[in-house]
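Technical note accompanying the year-one report. For the benefit of new consortium partners, we illustrate the data format agreed upon in the data management plan: each record pairs a sequence with a C-alpha cell string. No post-processing was applied to the example shown here.
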Amino acid sequence: MENISQNDIRYKEAEKRVKKIKSFYMSVIIYVFVNIFILFLNYKALKAEQTIWELKYFALPFFWGMGLLIYGMVVFIPGFFLGKNWEERKVKQLMEDENKY
C-alpha cells in the first residue's frame, strides 16, 4: 500500500471531497426528517373538507428537493457547475489582472 502524507495534494483534495459528500448526506438526512415532520404537522392541521394531496403541502419538499438534487449533482459529478477548469482559468485571470497594476 502506498504511504500517503497528509501534506500530499491528492490527500487534501480527497479530504475536501469527502467533506462535501458528508455534507450532502447530512443535508439529505435533514431534508427527510424535516419534511416528514412538516407533512405530519400539516396532516394534523387538516380540516374535514381538505385532503393531504393539495399542492401547497408538497411545494416545500418539491423545491427543497430540487435544490438538493442540484447540490448532489455538484458533489458527485465533477465539473458540473464551475468545475476545476473554471477555477484554474479564474485564478490565472486574477493573477494577470493583479500584475497589470
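Partners are asked to follow this layout when depositing records. Residues 9-44 form the longest helix (36 residues).
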